[in-house]
Amino acid sequence: MGEKIANYFHFHELGTNFRKETLAGLTTFMAMVYILFLNPNILGATGMDKGAVFTATALASALGCFIMGIVANYPFALSTSLGMNAFFAYSVCIGMKVPWQTALAGVFVASIIFMILTAFKIREIVIDAIPNDLKSAIAGGIGLFIAFIGLSDGGLVVANKSNLVGLGSLSVSTTWLTIFGLVVTIILMSMRVPAAIFISMILTSILGMVTKLIPIPTQWVSSVPSLKPTFLVALKHIGSINSLQLIVVVLTFLLVSFFDTAGTLVGLAEQAGFVKHNKIPRIGKALAADSTSMVVGSLLGTSPVGAFVESSSGIAVGGRSGFTVVVTGILFILGTFFSPLLGVVTDQVTAPALIIVGMLMASALKNIHWEKFEIAAPAFLILIGMPLTYSISDGIALGFIAYPITMIAAKRGKEVNGIMYALAIIFVFFLWILEK
After folding, report:
1. Where are the transmembrane segments (predicted)?
2. What would the mean pLDDT of 269-294 be, rounded to a whole number?
């Protein structure tokens, strides 16, 4: 049996073994398990049942890992994307006042389109048309947006009547939990400690319970929370997508997922040494894994699923085959029995994770050619537009509209792919519709 598994996952060819792959799977899980507790907190802001979101997140993550590992044979774990769950909760549901049931239906429709585009390889065509500089700006902009949400949730940044935002009050006890978690995470990350984010969340939760800022749960293990509040809700509300604004929301889910998954997959593939002649072998299977997981996730009741950048931690300790994420998927299923910990993982506990992930995503900014203004201007609009408009889609729209204009002005219009011109026009209508 062991030999069959080793042969199936090509252990010998990839220079790996059961011990390495198992350790890599555990490391990947420890690095990303915080999403089980963070995602319910973010989506819970929309009124969704946190227990149901917890279970949906775990099952969607497990399924995504299994498909990616068994079908594509890559050590790339999947789960609910931080950028997309923030867009779902704060931009669509809270900002645009769209009911979460309708937003889930939007995710489902977008995921079906996602699968069709993947099958016809249109995703690769569109992704190739977007300049690398703008892809990097999108990753960095989402990082700033996520970090801003973390600073706000943790009480470090608050609304200010005189200058819009300001430093939060340090006299608020719970804010110090955020500060403690942030300092610990930064120290552990600097020391290259695996699962630094998860360890920090545990220590911050313990500190909160010891200081009585967080209530101690009456139990630690329980039965799996029911999926009933969110299960198949997306199907029941497809008819609610009955306005041009909601159609734009669906297209935005689709558009943002394009960049989120593509950028992450390319980065992980490069880290693991899979990129050959500027191509990623079996990329079609990897994209099929994430699009299938996105469909299932929407039916279970969670925001879009995509490749998780924390997979880099498992790759760093030697994970090279799909068996790595099969192990991760099994651990996600076991994690469903620990839902009582949801009450322990408060906004102040998860805020440092958001801030740190934002920092990591901002590293993509180094790839932008800032010395060329025609590139720097649209990239900067994307980067600054996301946190300041509190919307990922608005930031992307500003940059994509500006890009053809600056390139034409710089007499480089012929270098702009026709698809980028089309996207610019689409985004002009997108912003116009949002104002209606």
Report:
1. 22-39, 51-78, 98-122, 134-152, 164-188, 195-214, 234-256, 322-343, 349-368, 380-406, 418-434
2. 79
Residue 366 has pLDDT above 90, yes or no: no
pLDDT tens string 83-106: 788 888 988 899 888 999 999 999
**Burial tier of 216 (Cβ tally within 10 Å: 0-12, 13-18, 19+):** exposed
Which residues does 179 contact at the CB level (< 8 Å), separation at least 6? 154, 156
Amino acid at 201: M
Q: Are strands 157-160 and 78-80 parallel, antiparallel or unpaired?
A: unpaired
Q: What per-residue confidence (pLDDT) applies to 29?
A: 86
Q: Which residues, in sequence order, are bridge partners of residue 305?
A: 80
Give pLDDT, residue 245. Answer: 72
What confidence tier does 278 reach under pLDDT thresholds 50, 70, 90?
low
Q: What is the pLDDT of residues 132-180, one digit of tens each?
A: 788 788 778 878 887 888 898 888 998 887 788 888 888 888 899 999 9
> What's the rounded Cα separation, in Å, for the pair 355 and 200?
13
Domain ranges (residues) in the chain: 2-222+238-362, 369-436
Q: How confident is the model at residue 350 (pLDDT cuts 50, 70, 90)?
A: confident
User: Tokens for 209?
Assistant: 């319970």
Per-residue pLDDT at 48: 94
